[in-house]
Amino acid sequence: MKRSWTWGALALVLIGTTWGCGSASADGEEMAQGQGFTRVINVEVMPVSPQRFVEEIRLTGSVTASQDVRVSAEESGVVREVFLDKGSHVHAGQPLLKIDDQVLRAQVGQARAQADLASQTWERRKRLWEEDSVGSEMAYLQAKFAAQQTQANLEGLEARLERTTVRAPFDGVLDERTVEVGSMVSPGQVVGRVVALDPVKVQAGVPERYAADVHTGAVAEVTFDVFGDRVFRAPVHYVGATVDPENRTFPVEAELRNPDELIKPEMVANIALARRVLDSAVVVPQDALVRVEDGYVAFVAGRDPSGPVARRRTLTLGPAQRNMVVVTSGIAAGDSLIVVGQKSVADGDRINVVGTRD
Description:
This protein is of the alpha+beta class. The protein folds into four domains: about 40-50 and about 280-355, Beta Barrel (conserved putative lor/sdh protein from methanococcus maripaludis s2 fold), CATH 2.40.420.20; about 55-65 and about 195-275, Elongation Factor Tu (Ef-tu), domain 3, CATH 2.40.30.170; about 75-100 and about 165-190, CATH 2.40.50.100; about 100-165. About 25% of the residues lie in helices and about 45% in strands. The strands form four sheets. A six-stranded antiparallel barrel has the order 2-9-12-11-10-13. Strands 6-5-3-8 form a four-stranded antiparallel sheet, with no helix packed on it. Strand 15 and strand 16 form a beta hairpin. Helix 2 packs antiparallel against helix 3.
């Protein structure tokens, strides 16, 4: 009984001590809060100055050759000679291959003999009829038309003989050759493919909302992922007159010089077209802005009698481009925009500027 009473008394003492400690701790928090400590937040700022801003229309397009032709045979026969292999550079009119022309050569020889005979007959009939009034007018006309007919026949056969040599239609590269020596070809059969790679065309579809902003003569900046940051400039030489009803875009084409033939057809191109240029705009990084329910705000470094403080500004934004945005109201040139720490401050907070960004 005595031992039980002793343990009970000890428990009451411990409980009382615990209550006493809890009351002291609470009083300490209230006291710390009552002292009114002001937090100071470290920030970095960026001076705001007017600058040139180019709003761009960014598109994804593809490259096509300026000329791309599948060359076909115009005469039938067996391929007797191939002059160039695929991948070779060619000039306009350069022979690519030769089709057997033995039969046509014989026909040309025969037609030439007939044309010579008809021409001489016509000359004699003409002299006799016009100078001596010998013969009949019908014989005179028959000789005249026979000379014309045989000459036309000869020219036709000579043209066919010329077509037995298949030639490059323009300067470029023989990208494909589909026949070999001994192949039998017929008129219209594709024997090769010639592509012109300098210049090339860059094609893309522009959303219809930009119809008033794109025109021929504008200069497009073109980049390719494979070439890193290298920028190519290409003038726009074609703007489509109609909008595709399926994707609501209209086509544009820009001509891009390609002397080294590094750019190849069907490559994916990133295209930037200038929509408008603002010569003196307030431009700030988008990540310096803070999203709120009714739009965006930013914080600038200001001062009051106690020192540097953060000031909240409600913004009206203009066009944006590549993580930069135009501010039409809310920030002015000369302000010091908080770019690091802006999400940790509130209007009137004390700040410590630890760095300035250019």
